[in-house]
Amino acid sequence: MTPFASPRLVPYLGLAALGLIAALALRRAELVVLATPFALIVAAGLLLEGRPRVNAWLSLERERALEGEEIVALVELNAATSIDVLEIHLLVPRGLTIVDGDNPCSLRLHADEERTLSITLRCDRWGSVELGDIRMRARGRIGMLTWEGRIRRPQRLQIYPRPELLQSLVAPLDTQLATGDLVARIRADGHEFADTRVFVPGDRLRSVNWRASARRGELIVNERHPDRNADVVLFLDSFAEARSGDEADGTLERAVRAAATLAGRYLARRDRVGLVTFGGILRWLEPGGGLVQRYRLIDALLETGVEFSYAWKDVNIIPARTLPPKALVLAVTPLLDERSIAALHDLRARGHDLAIVEVSPEEIVTPGNGMDALAYRLWLLRRAALRARFEQSGVAVARWNDELPLDAGLEGVRAFRRRARLSRR
Amino acid sequence: MKRLRPNRSHRTDLRDSAAQRSARRRSLALGAGSVAAADALAGWLVLEAGPDAVRPVAALGAFAAAALIAALAIGRPPAIVGALVLLGAAYAAILVLDGPPLDSRSAVVGAAMLAVGELAYLSLEARTAVTEEAGAVARRVATLALLVLVALVLGAAVLAAVDLLRTGGLAIEVVGAAAAIGAVGLLVLAAREARQDNG
């Protein structure tokens, strides 16, 4: 620990010196007596109080938590020397709030005493945070010197986004070859009845529909839809975000929450899910399935942040294997940055099955008066035109804001895709 | 688009405001103690001052009290030193203008000035966001009381020594004789040890 002079040290020394000089100048010994207490307290403080020795450790109740959950952090202290006043401050990173326990706090420790401080933290925002920066300030009984130190006991805490309310998903237009929970459009071996047709050599006998065969006077077989899985690529736009000044979530927080929910639901359906975080830093994860892929996806999502960048980026920089053919690309974006908008148009032009969940920034922006109100209206019109352009190219855009559950937002996508399919027929 | 402020829970806000209120109360009590001690010292000095010294002592005492109140109000430690210097100057004015032979009140004045300064600094230190253990302030005040007592005793000892040196008399003769006997004893001891080493 590093020693620092107390704010009293220099003034008291000055007072003692002034008293002695005045005693000499005025030839009055009483002024020496006046200076004595100040000299005494400084001397006692410097000579009697040594360097304090204390150690601290941090332990977290667990390494993973959900947004909104509370976790307990324990700061264990062990003093080798007696410390009259020890101030402890555990630096709490953004995304965590102290709910219970005093931080910073001051306490007294005897020699060889161990003490454990308990601090309850609430996880406010998803992310990967590091705790463990402990600042300490100690002083003795007289306190002419204060000793300051910093102990680092890094502990990483993964705060997973809380799931959004979601009952049904957006179905992809095409399925893949592996078995899953989706009813494929093609006809093959499966459970779901599709149609009947005339028997051809090679058909299995158990496929024969005997009732239909009796009515038609020839052998008729049932055709079925197989159960297949799908590839889903979550396209998360992290170029820009909208955020209000108050404590409400920004568009990125909501987008990550939506992406994590969608990933979990698609993986539960045995689909393969991939991720492209398209922003200042490009991150991708090839489609995969299972629990491991779920943790990979969430860990990748936790690292997402808005990194400012002037560089123009398009879909060419995304590795081809990340966007497999017939995959449903589900973009979660606030539609604020031209680069991500151009990339989405490009994806559609390349024939990808694309749907957009627009994390709406419109409710965050407060319209002003006069010219501000006019600018706000123009901005809304431009956004409406942008959505219309996407819909003209066959891309469903679902607006999702803080007041709606994600399910209500996705319902717009599902309805559009049903209509689009009918019009294609 | 502004950045998010760190979230603070309602419970945290309530606890913080309670801690702040408690810290403010502690600081106010210690500050009031410091001002009361300074006022008492200044008032006592005015009462003790002779006719020539009353006015300057009263003026210096009033300035000292005002400086201390200002220091505590604006939270500036250097002004505390100013207040202590003014209190010391008030006492020095008594010494210069009234000219007592050897003033035994100086030990009390020195201890009181220490109490004024320590209480004022404790008041400023109490204005902190750090939550303190129960009884921490009482412990510091007890330490301060002990320090003031030690200062009083030490001041009295210094005064006694000065008086002894100044007046001389039988006591100083006794001390001189004791010192001489001690020196002879030391010499005898040294000579005996030297003889044993040679033998």
Using brief descriptors, characterize the structure shown:
heterodimer; A: 425 residues; alpha/beta; six-stranded mixed sheet; B: 199 residues; 6 helices
Description:
Helix content of chain A is 30%, strand content 33%. Chain A has 425 residues and is α/β, with parallel strands linked by helices. Chain B is an all-alpha fold and 199 residues long. Chain B has six helices and one strand; from the N terminus they run ααααβαα. In chain B, helix 1 (10-48) runs antiparallel to helix 2. The model of chain B is unreliable at 1-8 (pLDDT under 50). Classes of the chains: A alpha/beta (425), B mainly alpha (199). At the A-B interface, helix 1, helix 2, strand 5, strand 6 and strand 7 of A face helix 1, helix 3, helix 4, strand 1 and helix 5 of B.
Structural class of chain A: alpha/beta
Structural class by sheet pairing and helices of chain B: mainly alpha
- The SSE order of chain B reads HHHHEHH
Give me the number of helical elements of chain A: 8
Distance between the termini of chain A: 77 Å
Kindly provide the radius of gyration of chain A, computed on alpha-carbon positions and rounded to a whole number of angstroms: 34 Å
Please trace the helix and strand order of chain A, writing H or E for each element: EHHEEEEEEEEEEEHEEEHEEHEHEHEH
What would you call the quaternary organization? heterodimer
Q: Uncertain segments of chain B of ≥5 residues (pLDDT<50)? A: 1-8
Mean pLDDT of chain A comes to 86
Q: Helical proportion of chain A?
A: 25-40%
Proportion of strand residues of chain B: under 5%
Sketch the major β-sheet of chain A: 6 strands, mixed
Overall outline of chain A:
elongated
Question: What do the pLDDT scores of chain B average to?
Answer: 81
DSSP strand count of chain B: 1
Largest sheet of chain B: none
